[in-house]
Design a protein that fits this description.
alpha+beta; Pnp Oxidase, Chain A; Pyridox_Oxase-rel; 6-stranded antiparallel β-barrel; 22% helix
């Protein structure tokens, strides 16, 4: 039997710092939607960098979101974190500039947000948009915890 343990807050933050990408859940046209998403961590603040389009439209309409991050080393060795919160659109220029510095440190090409090659129903204006996740709850599970040893 596989033992699954709760992760402590320090373990959760360590995983969030380490990984940098996950799956963003939000509501699209009244239905749940999940998309892969890079995120950027500054202390305990989580930022999402994207271009204006479907995700931004949906997060502006309903700011309740979920970010799921995982690290998998096999079916019996994994860690997973869920961040439930609100997507707050960053609109003040000093914060935008600070976050863009953080984003460019991790990814100078701004890929994949800027480098999309297809045209969807929203088009590709490549107008950037930044959101901060106002965290309501963070939880994590691991198969590499105390009871697994």
């Amino acid at each position: 039997m596989l033992d699954i343990d709760e992760m402590g807050q320090d373990e959760i933050h360590e995983l969030l710092h380490k990984v940098g990408y996950g799956h963003l859940g939000f509501i699209h046209e009244g239905k749940p939607c999940v998309m892969p998403m890079h995120y950027y961590l500054e202390d305990s603040d989580i930022y999402l960098f994207t271009t204006v389009g479907m995700k931004t439209h949906d997060m502006d309409a309903d700011s309740d979101i979920c970010l799921q991050v995982e690290e998998i080393h096999g079916s019996s060795h994994w860690r997973s974190v869920i961040v439930m919160g609100k997507a707050i659109h960053v609109t003040k220029q000093p914060e935008i500039e600070r976050v863009m510095t953080l984003v460019k440190q991790r990814d100078a090409t701004l890929s994949p947000a800027i480098n999309r090659t297809w045209i969807d129903s929203w088009g590709r204006a490549e107008v950037i948009s930044i959101y901060r996740i106002e965290s309501g709850e963070m939880s994590g599970r691991t198969t590499d915890g105390v009871s697994s040893r």
